[in-house]
């Protein structure tokens, strides 16, 4: 019997991935950029056992048995087994059945990047099991697009690539976490219920029905990625915050331009974004940036020096959000691999 256990972090995009050009290979229509969070607060954990005595293979997510038929899981497994078979000493183990046990220590499918951490973790564990040494970002991408960014720590860009086989659609580090050590993230859990439409459903519907999404992918994101890379490299928080908030709002504008529309933010989400704009206006410069994924929960980027003041403001204005959230501790970025 062989057993491996891995943990993997969550990442929060500041330039959003929204829309695929290839559903099976999970190839995006635009580049995206994210920061990877420290694993002290939010992470996925996967244990895989492999034994000649197992009569079948099984998979549990948060204690609930899942089908092993899911296309994405099958794609990840097949690809790793194909790479592993290049090593003749793996031949016997590749015939054994496996047991996969995955857990998240935060709400699953509530727009808190659970699939990103989950698939990054699964792929890392499988690669360790079979001794596969390759770029894991391309493998994690086959499970969930945003998962490819969770393979690395710090500031990460997923390059959309242009090869039809997806070989150049990979994640790369822009800067390690140590580059901007004062950066913190606050996660405000507005609602931890499962989201109405998954990111996968929502983005497919956007590609099929939104006119704005084409404009975003072709004319907006390429320029924004260049500006965002520069803001990160020069640690220009004011610019970083402006782009982050504009990109989040453009993504939600596209979700609304989708037919039928995908409504992810709720009244509390909008009230949080109003509060951040009022705070920044009061300070005369952007001191906090909000970003919302495919759900109502807010992620705030800010520097350590702002954490205490912003937390007391959130406490005052959104007491129930604070009460529910375990992640209001100013999460630092994760160290790079
Ligand atoms: C809004 O990676 O969950 O969080 O590739 O279909 O699994 P699939 O989608 P997923 O989409 C994430 C969308 C987002 C933006 C982002 O993380 O870049």
Automatic annotation (TrEMBL):
Belongs to the diphosphomevalonate decarboxylase family. Keywords: ATP-binding, Cholesterol biosynthesis, Cholesterol metabolism, Lipid biosynthesis, Lipid metabolism, Lyase, Nucleotide-binding, Steroid biosynthesis, Steroid metabolism, Sterol biosynthesis, Sterol metabolism. Residues 185-337 form the Mvd1 C-terminal domain. This is Diphosphomevalonate decarboxylase. InterPro entries: GHMP_kinase_C_sf, Mev_decarb, Mev_diP_decarb, MVD-like_N, Mvd1_C, Ribosomal_Su5_D2-typ_SF, Ribsml_uS5_D2-typ_fold_subgr. It catalyses: (R)-5-diphosphomevalonate + ATP = isopentenyl diphosphate + ADP + phosphate + CO2. Catalyzes the ATP dependent decarboxylation of (R)-5-diphosphomevalonate to form isopentenyl diphosphate (IPP). Functions in the mevalonate (MVA) pathway leading to isopentenyl diphosphate (IPP), a key precursor for the biosynthesis of isoprenoids and sterol synthesis. Pathway: Steroid biosynthesis; cholesterol biosynthesis. It comes from the Eukaryota. It comes from Nicrophorus vespilloides (Boreal carrion beetle). Pfam families: MDD_C (PF18376), MVD-like_N (PF22700). Residues 8-171 form the Diphosphomevalonate decarboxylase-like N-terminal domain. NCBIfam families: mevDPdecarb. It is an enzyme of class 4 (lyase). Its EC number is 4.1.1.33.
